[in-house]
Inverse folding.
């Protein structure tokens, strides 16, 4: 009788197979921030150069996840009294229009000045003057930093505009062989530049922790220049050094928040197993690598550490299609016998997990209706919800250090682009440009 | 005595039946938890449930496929001559040797001490094409299903045994459908499986290197079942000293 009931239950599951989409609630309403036209005086630089800087500030604000920037309106512009906009600033106009924040921009003698008005509080703040150099990379960096300051002041959250991204770019080489090199770009995709010259296949780069703002941030990646895939580390334009000396191939490295342990996949023992290696402060390995998990007839992939480094999430197909499992990273002295705990159950093909720095979420790529989308697993509720939609395959999500923004790449036959998305604004923005297959992006951290 | 045997058999039978019901319930729960999936995913669900049930049945006979963490300081220190500290799990070393032997990678470093650098390897010349045949895999699998291809690997092994100066690289490849990162690991799995077959056929394990190319190097561009099958492959490069 029991078996009959269960059989009926099973059959009903097959009949009832519709897709239910659950969208995450928007945590914060976007607040309108009016950004004035750039007030310029005659300058050695073209006015369009200043317009570009203004557009950059608008882009950073609009994609910060907390602000919406209305378009310029002449009647509002006429309320500003230059050169000292603070003296006769009319709060009533903005209160009536329900604009909580107003930003004015001016350039005089090649110095950019931003003033922020908090309409609700009736206060204003003049930010430090920014000397415009005319060197795009430098000036853009200053605007990104200014936006992050604004974000902190207006919304009380850290901005990520000044952080850089590292990624690999795959292109056709001179002799028609594919090559893949490591590149660096700003958070908006600008100032992209290649930082390795291996003439080989370099993939899955990551910064070491706490490299934000450094001129030569350390990073690690996988290169095939010895024929097999090995993990290297280096700084931009320096000769990379091998990070882990181990027989066989090593793939998909990730590092914990203190840079003391690296997890990776290796076939040193004959299977694609999960390994872990301890490191010292100068990125040198301590002791031997340790086999952390292996299972017969199974493939392990894509480890990612919890923020405290005590757990690792990874992909395994040990029980069927690839899904994400959790494993305790015990010290060798622990005697209990941990087993991987299945984490993602909603979809059947889950790959490239990434643990958010605040520890509350896991982003991963899951195949739904034949298309790989980015999904979120919420550790507090246990819910799995889609972050993206659309016909392109998406994979390799990477969290920004604010646990609010993500970057991921699309995967098309002959191209792949980087997209920026945040938890409040579900419309992804393509940030990469140019030829090649841009993939495996990750952020630098504060 | 006879009654005792009968009683014991009955207890075993009852225990097995109870377990079957539990396993079936587990499968049903699994299905229920995924009832929101589309019909395209149902077959995957059934396969997953099947594997869970198989594991449950195996557990009855004492088989445990899970690996475990190290359990003592002694294990942490590991074998002094080893490059890494292995899991000390008997399941990983012998129980499933018939279908999935883990063969450690060669100790020698390519390019040193008489071992060829891996960039010196080349695709087999036409005369050896039949000896080093490319073999193919089913979707998301790493074992060979085609008996002809298993025989082809035996033929490769036979050649390698007769030619001890020949070193090879086995490269594992995937089709375009899974993510790039997972395919990197799956390609590694496939290459190591073929390496294991060769070693089981008597080839010196120190002459076989593996590399995974994931889905980075398809032989055909296209999106049909046939084209995907051609790309899910293991192929060989050789070097003769």
């Amino acid at each position: 009788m029991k078996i009959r009931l269960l059989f009926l239950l099973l059959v009903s599951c097959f009949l009832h197979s519709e897709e239910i989409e659950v969208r995450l609630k928007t945590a914060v309403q976007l607040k309108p921030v009016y950004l004035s036209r750039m007030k310029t005086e005659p300058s050695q630089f073209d006015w369009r150069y200043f317009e570009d800087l203004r557009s950059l500030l608008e882009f950073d604000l609009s994609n910060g996840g907390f602000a919406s920037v209305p378009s310029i309106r002449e009647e509002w512009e006429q309320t500003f009294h230059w050169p000292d906009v603070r003296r006769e600033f009319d709060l009533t106009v903005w209160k009536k229009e329900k604009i909580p924040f107003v930003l004015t921009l001016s350039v005089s003698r090649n110095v950019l000045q931003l003033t922020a008005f908090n309409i609700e509080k009736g206060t204003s703040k003049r930010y430090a003057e920014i000397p415009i150099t005319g060197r795009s990379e430098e000036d853009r960096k200053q605007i990104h930093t200014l936006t992050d300051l604004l974000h902190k002041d207006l919304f009380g959250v850290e901005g990520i505009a000044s952080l850089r991204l590292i990624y690999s770019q795959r292109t056709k080489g001179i002799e028609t062989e594919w090559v893949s090199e490591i590149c660096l770009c700003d958070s908006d995709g600008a100032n992209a530049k290649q930082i390795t010259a291996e003439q080989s296949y370099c993939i899955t780069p990551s910064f070491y922790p706490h490299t934000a703002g450094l001129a030569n941030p350390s990073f690690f990646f996988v290169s095939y220049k010895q024929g097999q895939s090995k993990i290297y580390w280096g700084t931009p334009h320096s000769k990379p050094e091998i990070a882990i000396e181990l027989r066989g191939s090593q793939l998909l490295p990730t590092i914990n928040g203190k840079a003391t342990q690296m997890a990776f996949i290796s076939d040193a023992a004959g299977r694609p197993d999960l390994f872990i290696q301890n490191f010292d402060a100068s990125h040198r390995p301590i002791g031997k690598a340790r086999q952390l998990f292996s299972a017969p007839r199974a493939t392990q992939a894509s480890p990612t550490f919890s923020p405290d480094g005590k757990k690792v999430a990874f992909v395994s197909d040990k029980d069927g299609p690839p899904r994400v499992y959790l494993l305790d990273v015990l010290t060798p002295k622990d005697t209990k016998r941990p087993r991987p705990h299945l984490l993602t159950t909603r979809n059947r093909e889950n790959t490239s997990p990434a643990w958010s720095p605040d520890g509350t979420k896991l982003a991963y790529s899951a195949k739904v209706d034949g298309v790989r989308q980015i999904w979120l697993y919420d550790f507090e509720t246990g819910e799995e919800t889609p972050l993206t939609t659309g016909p392109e395959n998406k994979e390799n999500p990477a969290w920004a250090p604010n646990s609010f923004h993500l970057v991921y790449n699309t995967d098309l036959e002959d191209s792949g682009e980087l997209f920026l998305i945040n938890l409040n604004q579900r419309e992804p923005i393509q940030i990469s440009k140019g030829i090649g297959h841009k993939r495996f992006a990750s952020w630098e951290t504060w | 005595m006879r009654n005792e045997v009968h009683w014991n058999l009955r207890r075993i039978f009852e225990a097995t039946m109870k377990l079957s019901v539990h396993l079936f319930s587990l499968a049903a729960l699994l299905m229920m938890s995924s009832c929101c999936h589309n019909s395209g995913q149902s077959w995957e669900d059934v396969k997953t449930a099947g594997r869970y049930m198989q594991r449950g049945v195996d557990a009855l006979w004492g088989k445990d496929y899970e690996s475990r963490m190290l359990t003592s300081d002694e294990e942490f220190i590991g074998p002094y001559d080893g490059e890494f500290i292995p899991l000390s799990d008997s399941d990983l070393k012998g129980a499933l040797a018939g279908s999935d032997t883990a063969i450690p990678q060669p100790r020698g470093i390519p390019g040193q001490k008489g071992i060829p650098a891996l960039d010196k390897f080349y695709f087999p010349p036409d005369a050896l094409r039949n000896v080093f045949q490319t073999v193919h895999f089913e979707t998301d699998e790493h074992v060979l299903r085609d008996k002809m291809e298993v025989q082809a690997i035996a033929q490769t092994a036979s050649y390698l045994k007769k030619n001890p100066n020949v070193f090879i690289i086995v490269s594992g490849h995937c089709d375009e459908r899974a993510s790039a990162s997972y395919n990197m690991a799956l390609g590694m799995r496939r290459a190591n499986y073929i390496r294991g077959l060769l070693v089981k056929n008597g080839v010196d394990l120190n002459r076989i290197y593996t590399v995974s190319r994931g889905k980075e190097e398809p032989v055909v561009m296209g999106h049909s079942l046939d084209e995907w099958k051609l790309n899910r492959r293991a192929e060989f490069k050789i070097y003769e000293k």
